[in-house]
Model the fold of this input.
Amino acid sequence: MTMTYENVLTELENGVLIITVNRPDKLNALNNRTIEELHEALMEAENEKDIRAIIITGSGQKAFVAGADIAEFSDFNISQGRHLSATGHFKIFNFIENYSKPVIAAVNGFALGGGLELAMACHMRLASENAKMGLPEVTLGVIPGYGGTQRLAQLVGKGKAFEMIVTADMMNAEEAYKWGLVNYVTKQEDLLNKCKEIAAKISLRSGVAIKTAIKVINAGYNKQENGYEVEIEEFGKMFGTADFKEGVKAFLEKRKANFPGN
Done:
């Protein structure tokens, strides 16, 4: 990773890129600059073969991302509001959901509004015990605009999503785990290590198979696609990859696979 950013820190460790949203004085709120920098960092990482997984977290111990930067859009009109949502979907939220490498959210504190939407766009979420999650947009006279109405319902069910969105109530880490919003809850000091542990396992697997698995799992949630048909098609394609040939050869030779990544 060669680029430097104003609001985002990047650190590469053992094939895992840790991206930290670094606006602690604003509780890491997402402004336009931060969204742009996240997009750029992810674009760059996608082309780096050595990077096998991404962890996204927030700086400090208070907040993952405490929402969008409200001051930036307080005087927007209808068309500007629509553009704000559409740009965010394209550059970050849909972009992460369909990213070719697994993205893990390390939710180390408040994940509210756009912050929770960022975490939900990731493929997995881990939370520290002090984390609090919610979509408080209706308290501002608006609704979640970065995929929150869709992804929250997919993760916790329609009824609970309705409750959280229309009451604007927050959920603590244990509740989030109970409702399937997060995969694990850890102590604050253990959070990144647990994420790295999962990322280390991912790094040993076939990158081609993982990229395909992400695509096929997402297809099941896309109303324009039949997930089962996509699975059949993509499963077949795997038989033409070098990773498949190495994986099967290693299995038959009773050794660990060394995947070439194509």
Notes: The longest helix spans residues 78-97.
